[in-house]
From TrEMBL:
InterPro entries: 6-hairpin_glycosidase_sf, 6hp_glycosidase-like_sf, Glyco_hydro_9, Glyco_hydro_9_Asp/Glu_AS, Glyco_hydro_9_His_AS
Keywords from the UniProt entry: Carbohydrate metabolism, Cellulose degradation, Glycosidase, Hydrolase, Polysaccharide degradation, Signal
Catalytic reactions on record: Endohydrolysis of (1->4)-beta-D-glucosidic linkages in cellulose, lichenin and cereal beta-D-glucans
Annotated GO biological process: cellulose catabolic process
Record-stated family: Belongs to the glycosyl hydrolase 9 (cellulase E) family.
Phylogenetic placement of the source organism: Eukaryota, Viridiplantae, Streptophyta, Embryophyta, Tracheophyta
UniProt protein name: Endoglucanase
Length: 496
């Protein structure tokens, strides 16, 4: 998250009224080698995929492993939970800050797992992806301390966002926030359930015992989320729920049905299909299209009672495809899907991931395409448009700018990211305090000393312009969920 005055941020929320921030599908599609990908495009998608995953290592909290590849980072937040006799170390810092927000972290894990399920990668890449998933799931398991208790945030967001310091130097309060039966947060609990269910599928072959543990916790979390319903508000003003919790409940139930095939979850989905409605975005706040996409495949496998979800999924595609008579999300002059001017690439990457998976579902089931008013879109057309979004992010845009740090030669150099913008503790061991970090590094005109390879920033404005200013958090800050969705998108381009 970004350094903003609380009142201004809440006013922005009120104006926008939306997010401020930025059976199993068994037929995994194999990936081509990087050389064959290079023959079909000027971009090395295999390299982009590996870098997108690598970024997550730079976001790790806790004690780093011996095989840590992002070496400018070091151990941090090793006392999280200790005062309460809990071990809440690990997990991810969500963006350029030093807070662990459990709700978007779980969404990141769900997306990474979905990519791992849909697309078989080369062995080493697959191992790195599963390591990224496990770093998140291990934390979620720790945070789920009882059937009706889930710790959802570690760190005081307001204090943290007034500070500019490395996570290794962090001295702001590591306040614990939790939901329980008397203070529920259905969105956070249900998203954690979705993450663990999806991850249980990803680990089913490689680590069956771990997969079983994930599934047990997932079922418990969905029971908790559903029995004690209440909208999640603990992360406000940083992560506020605007879409309600019905989308997360459907999302979690869909993943649990995919993971188990148990009829109770299908019955839950069909009995609550009235919750589903057409949307035009996919984000940490709004998961309807995620559930609708999963259930579209189930419809084509003979579950006709899921027809509403298929129709709603098609409406999403119609809302984002250029040339559709019901298009709602417009593109910039350079062709980028543009939902809103607040970390827009989070919506672009997530929409693109859905488009790739939806086109794959159409092809898999020999469906000619979908009708959007007077326009008809085939699976290849949907896929081709999704590819333009990946290419735009990697450099095919009016500024010839790669919005992935370290990819190509022209990419953002002044990331809105504390750890990246302050010299590594391994190079400068003296403590960099809150105000020193602000005056010496946040306000510095120089490029960040640490290249946060793989980080995808919030992206350009509606006119395809990007200023590369550290203070411009809406455009210069990376997040884990932008990268997680991009992993699924670029993996699709490597698929045969």
């Amino acid at each position: 998250m970004t350094m903003v005055v609380y009142g201004v941020l809440m006013l922005w929320c009120a104006i926008v009224g939306l997010a401020m921030r930025p059976g199993v599908m068994e037929d995994q599609t194999p990936l081509r080698s990087s050389s064959s990908a290079a023959n079909s495009s000027s971009y090395d998608y295999a390299d982009a995929l590996e870098k997108a995953i690598l970024f997550l290592e730079g976001q790790r909290s806790g004690q780093l492993p011996s095989n840590q590849r992002v070496t400018w980072r070091a151990d941090s937040a090793l006392s999280d939970g200790k005062l309460q006799n809990l071990d809440l170390t690990g997990g991810y810092y969500d963006a350029g800050d030093n807070v662990k927000f459990g709700w978007p972290m779980s969404f990141t894990v769900t997306l990474l797992s979905w990519a791992n399920i849909e697309y078989q990668t080369q062995k080493q890449t697959d191992q790195n992806l599963q390591s990224a998933i496990r770093w998140g799931t291990d934390f979620i398991l720790k945070a789920h301390t009882s059937p009706t208790t889930l710790f959802t945030q570690i760190g005081d967001g307001n204090a943290d966002h007034q500070c500019w310091e490395r996570p290794e130097d962090m001295d702001t309060p590591r306040t614990l926030y939790k939901i329980d039966s008397s203070s529920p947060g259905t969105e956070a609990a249900a998203e954690s359930a979705a993450a663990l269910a999806a991850a249980s599928i990803a680990f089913k072959k490689t680590d069956p015992a771990y997969s079983s543990t994930l599934l047990t916790h997932s079922k418990s979390l969905l029971d908790f989320a559903d029995k004690y319903r209440g909208s999640y508000s603990l992360s406000c003003p940083f992560y506020c729920s605007y879409s309600g919790y019905q989308d997360e409940l459907l999302w979690a139930a869909s993943w649990l049905y995919k993971a188990t095939g148990e009829s109770q979850y299908l019955n839950y989905i069909t009995s609550n299909q009235g919750w589903s409605h057409a949307v035009n975005e996919f984000s940490w706040d709004n998961k309807f299209i995620g559930a609708q996409t999963i259930l579209t495949q189930e419809f084509y496998e003979g579950k006709n009672e899921l027809g509403k979800f298929k129709s709603d999924a098609e409406s999403f595609v119609c809302a984002v495809m250029p040339g559709s008579s019901s298009q709602q999300i417009k593109t910039t002059p350079g062709g980028l899907l543009y939902t809103r001017d607040s970390s827009n690439l989070q919506y672009t990457t997530s929409s693109t991931m859905v488009l790739f998976i939806f086109s794959k579902i159409l092809s898999r089931n020999n469906v000619s395409g979908i009708q959007c008013g007077f326009s008809h879109f085939t699976a290849p057309q949907i896929r081709d448009f999704a590819k333009t979004q990946v290419d735009y992010i990697l450099g095919k845009n009016p500024m010839s700018m790669s919005y992935m740090v370290g990819f190509g030669s022209n990419y953002p150099k002044k990331l809105h990211h504390r750890g990246s913008s302050i010299p590594s503790i391994k190079d400068q061991q003296g403590k960099v305090g809150c105000s020193d970090g602000m005056s010496n590094y946040y306000n510095s005109p120089n490029p960040n000393p640490n290249t946060h390879v793989g980080a995808i920033v919030g992206g350009p404005d509606s006119n395809d312009h990007f200023g590369d200013e550290r203070s411009d958090y809406s455009h210069s800050e990376p997040t884990t969920y932008i990268n997680a969705a991009f992993v699924g998108s670029v993996a699709a381009l490597l698929a045969e």
